[in-house]
Each structure stands twice: as structure tokens, then as C-alpha cells.
Amino acid sequence: LLKCADRQHHVLVSAFISNTQDVQANKLFTKASVVRLPNGEIQNTNNTLLAQKDLWNILEKYKDASVDKGKSFITYPNFLKAKEEVCLKAKYIFVYLLHLFNFIYLTYSLSPRRYFTATIFAKLCHGERFSRVNILSFFNYVMKTVWLQQTRIGISLYDAHGDGYLREGDLENYISELIPSLCKLNGVDDAFRTFYVCTAVRKFLFFLDPLRAGRVRICDILACGFLDNILELREASTTQARLEENWFSLESAKRVYASYLRLDTDQNGMLSRKELAGYNNGSLTDAFLDRVFQECLTYEGEMDYKVYLDFVLAMENRGEPQSIAYIFRIVDLGGQGRLCVKTVEYYLNSLLESLGDGPDTPRTCDIINEIFDMVRPKDPDYITLDDLLKSGKGDTVLGILTDIQCFMLYENREALAAGIQPDIFDRSAFETNKENAFAIRIKKASEILTDEEIKNIFTILNKYTIPSSSSDESYISYPLFIQAKQQTSFVNANLPFSRFFSPIAFAKLSKTDKFSLMKLSDFYAYVIKMTWLYRTRVELSKYDAVGKGYLIEYELEHYLKSQLPFLNQIKDIERWFIPYYLCTVSRRFFFFLDPIRVGRVRICDVMASGLLESFFALGYKTKIKSENDYFTLSSVKRVYDNYVKLDINKDGSLSRNELSRMSTGMGHLSKFFIDFFFATHPSRNGVIDYRTYMDLVLALENRESTQSIRYLFNAFDIAGHGKLKISMIEDIFNESDRESGSKEFLNFYSFVYDKFKIKDPEYITLNELLNS
């Protein structure tokens, strides 16, 4: 930026830039344009007004006679005397610029007066009891200021647009030309040079360009302190420990790049979701990984090295405001700038699913309460980014929601304070536990009675039966039952059948007989049923990867798929339709057996629900004619065909407008419900997938069940407090017709008030609905 007396100089400069094709002339113009200070005087700070030794000698000359703890001070009167002597020694320099508007002569003065001001003296003497300034502090201030001016001029040479900003390409050029001057980077080879420059530049852009505008201010580069870290690489005495902590060191860049190559198992230069799951020993939760690939820029579902660098910077600097904002943007499901209770619960469910079920596993509601108590948000219903930043606990909260190791460290913070190292989540140990659990399940499988063994047991039992005079049934008394057990145990000593010959089993099966005798046929049916249940449980346990007695949806679908060849009524299923059939069937299990949406179902609940019996009933050769049976092929196809009809855009998902066309048998869904449904249920880019649609269908087709009431209630309960405002319900009634809606609402409210016995006239709670 040149200052000329002629008002038309700006026009001449613009014409020069736009018309010239001379590269050297452009470089010369750039150098001339940056040699300017705010007061309008062009100064060349590369030529020092005084040698460092001269400045120090003058300060020593006027220092105070008293010395405090080895430190030398200067009073304000002597400070002014030193100022005058320094100004007398200042030199006048002439700069001659050629090949720029023919020629220009510029005379300027390197004025040291701006360092010797009352303002600077007052700032440096703040807190000193005699209002003096430490001459070493003042000397360092002058040297630092001169260095900043020199650095500013050096960086401005790369400001191609002359607007005080550096773009990514400008920063890459600056770092590239700076490398030869850094002795700690002498070992960088040409092949790795590009990756080093990229690694260094990403830190500037990540922390200094929070709005992702693609540029950073030069003044921010000077103020951030990153240049100090880079200049550490000029010192040969920099220790290895400091180099490992310095992001700009060659060791740090190679460490990050090596981790990228380690994760890239298919060696295509990009990271998929499955590959990124191995980051930090696989401690990131599945829910967070899903959101990373939804929010971050990817190429055909994979992330490149620059996006990975941003991710690493956020993970390694969790306490920085930029990192908190980066992670918050990822975990914010609705993109509304806040985390409601449902969102926090969603991430905690994913976390606890990875930890498995155990006696020390905390409850979701307890962790939610602890997080909200920790943050103390302005609005108790949700947490905003400002709440996280003001609380000073943003890194802890986001770490708990996204990383298993961070959660474990937080849970064991008392042990850490006491010097005890807690157990840290390790993916390799996790896989070892899986193998051990599988070995135990194989052992259990060997304990299942075969049909031949069951036949042998009943051959012995027949010897102790009491024939009935009135029927063909055979009975057995309890003493004979015990004798048969002893003989069976002697003949089949290795068989675990004692659980069948228990007093409780005999009491249950003989309670209807007046003589307390047990029918042999009832006991036979009991043994067959229990053996089948035990065999099925062992089969299900083979798909329990964690070995905690739970199945996630993927594992349940694999088990159901393995049973399809044995189902006579499903043999005609087309290959392309199998995934949709399995998804539809498994959603029924999860809808009714996982009401709090943890993402897993207990194997014992699967066995006790009766759903498996309905599923295995498809193995009978006689076809089930009822269309209401959920597991029949015709029933599943009916649901899928309805989904396809609603999907007008043919993109495999449903938008708000498409879902509004859904018919429930009682009319179409209300606009209010659809708005609330999309606000409270996970949706990608404002659309829902087939699984979410299936849950809605199950809720609407089974309205009387507790799970459906809870599901539909939660769709309206945006805040997640377990209660609905009466005023909101009134708005829903008034949606179609305000006059008739008000009358219907009054009738509804009087019915609700009497029937549900609500305590608060302004709210209806979920418990009141369920108890009614």
C-alpha cells in the first residue's frame, strides 16, 4: 500500500496490477506495498535504528541506582532522558525504488519515539511499588515489537490480494520457503515435504479460520503464537520432548501421517467409516462416528488427509474453543445449535452399548443429570455451545458423549487423583473377551440334551408310573419321581438334566391334580419345551459378540437370516428382498423389547416374548392365512410396498411432505405430529429411513401397547421431560378447524381430567397416561 501525494495514485496502482505481465515487477510492487506503518511513514524495519547493544547500554546508563533482587529498573524521568539520547542516534535512510512508476524517492525516519511513550511505561510498570520499569522487560518489548514488524512484512509478501489475509495457497508458499531456514527440518525429504506443509497449514486454518472462509488474518497469525512454535525449530538445542509436543516438528508430522497410513487398511489414500473406527484404539462411539461422516466433507463416503487433520486437531486439543465448536457441530443432530436431553441420551446409549452391561455400569439418566449439573445451562431443557464454553467443562462433556476412554477417565477421576491407574478401554482386550465368551457358549452347547438322551430318560420314568383307571394317562408321585431321578443320574451321570427333576417343576405340573400326582405327558412336554428354549438360547448367544447377554440389531438380523432356510413359508422370498424382510422382522423385536432405545435387547427377553415362536411357526408347511401376522412374507411386503408408494422422490427415504401422505386407518397424520416427529427422531438431512418408518408403523398399528404409547408420547415430548403441555394439545385440536377444534378440546380435556386424574392441570405426564 503506497502513500503518494497524488490522489490518483490508487488508480495508477490498480492499473499497474491489472495490466502488467512482468512477474518481477509484481514482486517489486508487493515488497514496496508492505513497507508501511500506521502513521503513514514508510519504514524499513530490517535496518535496525540502533544495535541491540547500543540500546541496552543507554538503558543501563539511566537505570536506577537501587537494585531489587538482581533486577535493574528505570524511573520515568530517566526513561525520558533515555528517549532523547536514543532519538539523537536515530539515522535517516533513503529508499530508492526502481521500475515502479518510473522511479520514486521516499524519505522517512525510523522514529524510536513510539517505544518511549507514557502508555508503554505505565503498562510495563503496572504492579511495581515504586512505579519503575524493569529495563530487561522494556528491552524485550522493543525487540519483540521489531521482530513482529519484520515478520509482518515477511508474511505480507505472500498476501497476493493485498487485503491483510492469507489463503491456504499463500500459507503453503510461506511454510515451504520457511523450511530451509529451520535446522530441525533438514531431514524432511521431497516425498514427505508436501504432507508436512499440509500438516502445518491445517493448524493455522483450523484455529484461525473458525468460519471456514478459507483465509486467515495476518494479524491473527502474529498474535496466536504458532510462529513461536515454528521458530523453535531454528534452535539446535531444542529437546526431543519439546519436538514431540510441537505440532510443527518433523516428528509430530510423521506421527500424524503414520497414524493415517495405519488406519488406511485398503491403501486407497482415503479413510472410510470402518477404518476411522480404529482411531485411538477404537474408543470412539458408533453414534459419533456416524455423525462425523454425515457432517464432515467426504468424497464418496471417505475422508481425505486434510479432513483427517482437522479431526486429529480437534481430538488432541479438546479444551480449545475451536475444538469444542468443531465437535459440537458434529454431535448437534438437528443442526439447531443445542443438545437436548434426547440427543445426549442418544450418544450415551451408544457409549453404554460399547461398554456392555455390568454391575458397575452407570444408568443413562444419572449421567444425563450429572452432565446438566456440570454445565448449568441457561435453559434447563438443552445445552448450547455458549453454555459449554462458559462452563469450562466443554471438553469433558463432549469427551463423555463421544469417546469411551474419556468416559472411563472421568468415571475414575477419584482413582487418578489418588495415583491409581484405572482400566482404560482397549479394543484388543475387548476382542479377547469376545473370544473367551464364545468359548464359554461352546461349552454350554455341549450340555444340551439330544433327542436320544431325552428318550432314554422317559424309558426309565415309565417304570415308575402309576396307571390311571379312568384314562390312558400315566401318573407319577413325588417319591417315585425322586427315585427315577436317582436312577437316571446313575445311568447318565454326565448329563445336566437335574434342572428338570426339581421340586418346583413337580409342584407346578401337579398343582391341578387332587392327589398331587404329575402327568407323565405334561412332564414330557415340559422337558421338550425347556430343551428347545435352552438350545435356542445357546444358538442366540453365539451371535452375542460381547458375551453380556444382549443382541444388537445387526446380530439379531444375522441370527434370523441363518433360520430362513428352515422356514417353509419363506422359501419363495426373492434374494433382493431378504435385507428388507430381516429389517422389518428385527424392528418388531427392538420396538417391543427395547422401549428406551438403548439399541440392544436381552436374550432372555427375546426368549420370553413369544416372538420367536411366531417366527418359527413359519416353518410349518400349512400356511398362515392371517394377514395380521407380522412375520408372514405377505405382511412384510405390504409394509414395504406402502413405504415405496410414499417415497415419491425414489431416494430410499421419506421427507416431511412424503410422510404426510401416510394413511393410518384413522386418516392422515397431523402436521403437528409430523413436525414433532422429525424434531425428536434421528433424521439424515431432514429425511427418515426405513427403520424409523417401521417404528412409526408399529406404534400406529399397536396403539394400545405400552411401548406404542411411550413412543408416540416421546414424539411430542421435545424437551424430554416426560410431560406434555395442555396448551400444545389445544393447538393440535385447532389445527383443522378452530371453532370445532375448541369444542372437541374441551370435551377431551374434561375426559382426561376425570379419567387420568392428572395432578397438574397444565400438563399430562407419561405415567398418568400409562396408569390410566
Automatic annotation (TrEMBL):
GO terms for biological process: cortical cytoskeleton organization; microtubule cytoskeleton organization; regulation of dephosphorylation. GO terms for molecular function: calcium ion binding. Signal peptide: none annotated. The keyword Transmembrane helix applies. The lineage of its organism: Eukaryota, Metazoa, Spiralia, Lophotrochozoa, Platyhelminthes. This is EF-hand domain-containing protein. The keyword Transmembrane helix applies. One of its GO terms (cellular component) is spindle. Its main location: cytoplasm. It is found in: Cytoplasm. It comes from Hymenolepis diminuta (Rat tapeworm). Residues 634-669 form the EF-hand domain. Keywords: Calcium, Cytoplasm, Membrane, Transmembrane, Transmembrane helix. The chain crosses the membrane at residues 90-108. InterPro entries: EF-hand-dom_pair, EF_Hand_1_Ca_BS, EF_hand_dom, PPP2R3C.
